[in-house]
Amino acid sequence: MTEQQRDVIIVGSGPAGYTAALYLARAGYKPLVIAGALTPGGQLMNTTEVENFPGFIDGIMGPELMESMQKQAEKFGAEILLDDVVSVDLDGEVKTVTVDQGDTYSAKAVVITTGAEYRKLGVPGEVEYSGRGVSYCATCDGFFFRNKPIVVIGGGDSAFEEADFLSRFGSSVTLIHRRDEFRASKIMVDRARANEKITFRTNAVVESVNGNDSGAQSVTLRDTVTGETSEMPAEGVFVAIGHEPSSKFLNGAVKTDDHGYILVDGASTRTNVPGVFAAGDVVDSVYRQAISSAGMGCRAALDAQAYLTSLEEA
């Protein structure tokens, strides 16, 4: 089935997608937002309290923030479709996107805000014990590891946030990082050091996740300085080592860098394909913050609006 042509389609959701939808809807374009089948709202749907989004003095829960942004966009005329885009044809003035259910939608402009996915360790046992000890979302699975030993792998803000959250449940939480310095902000590091339930294992990498029929039981660590290996009890193994941009579905339709992040023209959100724009974590490999994604979503909407206006004038 092919729907009637629209002015603009937004592929993805989260702060970038919903902000772009809000701006385009208020401009009268009634955008279609293909928000994803399983995780509409992006990574913030798996985040607890967000303390650094402007305007919320006491913080706000991630899912609440995303649901509010979605409803605000819908209030002004955005349409939300809970499905995944599996292929695109972005050549020519009319762009088409096909979703997992088989339907095809067309538009004059497309804004891509598909974000990024959790990066995997790629070690033995990770796949085998995924969902049975290995997790990529503390807020989703922390409750299941009450009074059990937990490890968190990573050195950025996300890893420290997860360690702090998991300390409410685990008998212990050990943060494992391959170096002796952390990428995380000082306030996050200081907060973790002040938490008596959190300990650190630096200069160490996970070589394997070990377990039995009941799930993960331990991790094998290798010291990056001495090369020695050791085993650490861990019934909860939480991986927080970064993200991969969700751009594979494009299949080369727009230019990306070597890591898959979509390339845009300078400070704009214009891709190398006329009428196609990109914003949020699928573009941004540096800041990766909700507020910067929202700002980029605003810019994408304004860039798309300028493009649509140019078509009307032509």
Automatic annotation (TrEMBL):
Keywords assigned: Disulfide bond, FAD, Flavoprotein, NADP, Oxidoreductase, Redox-active center
One of this protein's Pfam families, by short name?
Pyr_redox_2
Query: What are its GO biological-process terms?
Result: removal of superoxide radicals
Q: What class of enzyme is it?
A: oxidoreductase
Q: What is this protein called?
A: Thioredoxin reductase
Subunit composition and interactions: Homodimer.
Molecular function per GO: thioredoxin-disulfide reductase (NADPH) activity
Gene3D superfamilies hit by this protein: FAD/NAD(P)-binding domain
The free-text cofactor remark is: Binds 1 FAD per subunit.
Which catalytic reaction applies to this protein?
[thioredoxin]-dithiol + NADP(+) = [thioredoxin]-disulfide + NADPH + H(+)
